[in-house]
Design a protein that fits this description.
Oligomer: single chain
Number of helices: 8
Helix content: 40-55%
Number of strands: 9
Strand content: 15-25%
Shape: elongated
Largest sheet: 4 strands, mixed
Length: 206
């Protein structure tokens, strides 16, 4: 009798979890704690795992799930690694800033998608595996998180990765092209956060 009751409760939780997921657009990312109004973490986690087994959901990383977008030609389309990082930041109410080779990729300075994406953050440091890729969140100072321009932030982080006196003419040309679309006030604000040698390069792009 108890097993029957337990099974019915589990099924009820599973249906409620699936119902909430189906009310959101396909491609929306969910975490175990997205369902705290339905069940406790343990029960929600079990429901999500059952939904993965029944192929209603895909598990993209530990504790992160999605009902994939279905494309007519290529079938299931899973969220990109940046979508996952942004969803985690939103859940944690965290600020994140892309750094390193990923900043370079976002600017078009390299065509190779890095397997390891690194973000500065104001929350705890951690690493999350997403298939063959990974997201690393590095705890950073408030100065490294104070950028307000998307293009200028990426340009500064990319130049830091390239290194002083190492940027090629083509890289500087690409940065110059992208920064033309940056809000001048935001660019000016972000320049104050950059090392002097980066300020000089960016000042020449005006």
């Amino acid at each position: 009798m108890r097993q029957d009751l337990s099974g019915k409760m589990s099924k009820s939780i599973e249906l409620q979890v699936l119902g909430k997921i189906k009310r959101s657009p396909r491609g929306t990312l969910f975490f175990v704690d997205s369902f705290t109004t339905i069940a406790n973490a343990k029960s929600a986690n079990k429901a999500l795992e059952r939904l993965v087994k029944s192929e209603e959901l895909e598990r993209v990383a530990q504790g992160i799930y999605v009902r994939p977008v279905i494309d007519d030609y290529i079938g299931k389309v899973l969220p990109g690694i940046e979508d996952i990082a942004v969803a985690i930041a939103k859940r944690d109410r965290a600020t994140i800033v892309p750094t390193g080779s990923y900043a370079m990729y976002k600017l078009g300075l390299t065509t190779q998608v890095p397997l390891s994406i690194v973000y500065y953050t104001d929350t705890s440091a951690r690493k999350i595996k997403i298939g063959k890729q990974s997201i690393t969140f590095k705890k950073a100072s408030s100065k490294n998180l104070a950028f307000i321009g998307e293009a200028s932030m990426l340009a500064i982080q990319a130049l830091r990765t390239i290194g002083k006196d190492q940027a090629t003419d083509s890289e500087i040309k690409q940065i110059k092209k992208i920064l033309k679309n940056e809000n001048p006030k935001r660019l000016q604000h972000d320049l104050q956060l950059a090392p002097v040698w980066i300020r000089k390069i960016i000042a020449e792009t005006k």
